[in-house]
């Protein structure tokens, strides 16, 4: 009996000690005492978890628990099997790989969500259309098919799409191939075809302005579609995060940037890479910038 009371007292002292550790002054890890910024979920020095709840599902956890009693995830985080990044969320913060059973189930639901599939298809079409716009000269036409006469630019070899767009394209292909499987059949012998003159079709040629107008139309349709992509009512913050992480949409955008080319000094008007190259930099000068348009991929 006395031994059991001693064990209970010892456990109580441990819990009290852990609670006292969690109440140490802000700006210091309650375990190792080294400085932290107060927003980290893991101590960058000792790696111990700092949040009083499970970062994967939101369930409350006592300071001494290492495994969540609700979802079974480790409080110390999980390493992504794809890129090796340590994560404290249900999706990898680097490659968006689903890491928990709940995250994988949400991905399955997303692949059956018609709103998300429509948004993904629009994003892929916009990316491919943007490449066509880039390849079309100002005032010229691009030949999108047909055999008519007239001057037109022939599209060059398709460039590889950005990784985020390729991920959407591969996902759409997987959905289409798995949605309506058909058993293999023995092909019938083809019927003899009569020789006829090839039918001439009108060429599908569009100007840069027409392609840009089509892109803006798709963009408006995508924005309208995204407004209807909302998590179910009553979802917890973790469920909302899983919902949007499983439905990431990326688009290609044009961004204008200015890069410094040279520094023109007031002393002699020479172009320098930096002011220190001038013999009298205190006289001042002016930076010369080069404007250029770059393509970036942005997540919505």
Characterize the structure shown.
The chain has 300 residues and is of the alpha+beta class. Among the domains are: 108-176 and 205-252, no CATH class; 254-299, no CATH class. It is built from six helices and seven strands, in the order αββααβαβααβββ. The longest helix has 22 residues, at 114-135.
Briefly characterize the structure.
By secondary structure, the chain is an alpha+beta fold. It has helices at 2-22, 101-110, 114-135, 163-179, 208-227, 237-245, and strands at residues 78-79, 86-87, 141-143, 205-207, 250-265, 271-272, 285-299.
Can you give keywords for this protein?
300 residues, alpha+beta, 6 helices, 33% helix, flat
The geometry reads as flat
Helix percentage: 25-40%
Low-pLDDT runs of 5+ residues are: 1-25, 180-189
Major beta sheet, specifics? 3 strands, antiparallel
Q: How are the strands of the largest sheet arranged?
A: 6-5-7
What distance lies between the first and last C-alpha atoms, to the nearest angstrom? 63 Å
Order of helices and strands: HEEHHEHEHHEEE
**What is the radius of gyration?**
30 Å
The DSSP helix count reads 6
Strand coverage percent? 5-15%
What would the average pLDDT be, to the nearest integer? 78
Q: Decide which structural class fits the backbone.
A: alpha+beta
Number of strands: 7
């Amino acid at each position: 009996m006395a031994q059991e009371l001693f064990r209970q007292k010892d456990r109580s002292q441990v819990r009290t000690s852990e609670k006292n550790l969690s109440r140490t002054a802000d700006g210091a890890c309650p375990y190792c005492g080294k400085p932290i910024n107060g927003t980290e979920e893991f101590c960058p020095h000792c790696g111990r978890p700092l949040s009083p709840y499970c970062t994967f599902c939101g369930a409350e956890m006592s300071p001494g628990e290492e495994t969540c009693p609700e979802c079974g995830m480790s409080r110390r985080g999980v390493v992504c099997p794809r890129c090796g990044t340590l994560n404290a969320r249900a999706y990898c913060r680097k490659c968006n790989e689903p890491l928990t059973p709940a995250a994988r189930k949400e991905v399955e639901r997303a692949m059956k969500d018609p709103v998300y599939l429509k948004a993904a298809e629009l994003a892929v079409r916009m990316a491919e259309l943007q490449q066509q716009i880039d390849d079309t000269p100002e005032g010229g036409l691009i030949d999108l098919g047909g055999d008519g006469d007239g001057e037109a630019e022939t599209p060059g070899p398709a460039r590889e799409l950005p990784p985020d767009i390729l991920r959407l394209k591969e996902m759409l292909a997987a959905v289409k191939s798995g949605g309506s499987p058909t058993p293999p059949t023995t092909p019938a012998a083809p019927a003899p075809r009569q020789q006829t003159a090839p039918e001439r079709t009108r060429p599908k040629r569009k100007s840069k302005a027409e392609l840009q107008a089509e892109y803006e139309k798709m963009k408006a349709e995508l924005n309208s579609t995204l407004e209807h992509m909302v998590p179910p009512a009553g979802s917890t913050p973790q469920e909302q995060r899983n919902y949007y992480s499983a439905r990431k949409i990326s688009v290609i955008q044009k961004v204008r940037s200015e890069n410094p080319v040279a520094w023109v000094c007031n002393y002699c008007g020479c172009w320098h890479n930096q002011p220190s190259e001038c013999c009298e930099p205190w006289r001042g000068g002016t930076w010369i910038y080069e404007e250029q348009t770059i393509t970036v991929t942005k997540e919505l």
